[in-house]
Design brief:
alpha+beta, 3 helices, Alpha-Beta Plaits, four-stranded antiparallel β-sheet, about 100 residues
Length: about 100
């Protein structure tokens, strides 16, 4: 199991991407939440309101997830960070695996 962290410009975009991942069978579950981001861009410090997705999936679907994000994301260089899990309760892991095509 892996979690993939993705940031988006708006709630609408986050929902659109989450739905695309579910429709394509690349994810079993997507969490969306508002965040405040601080970053540098071109040497200038910036702040922005964004939305983050945590995509719950399996190793074999990571590339499918990246492909969807590259094709549909509004950012020129979106963050797509993968976290491998060391442990997950068996019941949830079985459920999640059954939801991914």
């Amino acid at each position: 199991m892996v979690f993939i962290y993705i940031t988006c410009a708006s709630e609408e975009e986050a929902k659109k991407l989450g739905q695309a991942l579910l429709d394509k069978g690349a994810a079993g579950c997507v969490n969306i939440f508002p965040i405040q981001s601080m970053y540098r861009n071109g040497g200038a410090k910036r702040e922005a309101s964004e939305y983050a997705l945590i995509v719950k999936t399996i190793d074999s679907k990571v590339q499918d997830t990246e492909d969807v994000i590259r094709a549909e994301h509004s950012y020129q260089t979106p963050c797509v960070a993968t976290f491998s899990l060391h442990r997950m309760n068996r019941e949830y892991k079985e459920w999640l695996s059954s939801q991914i095509v």
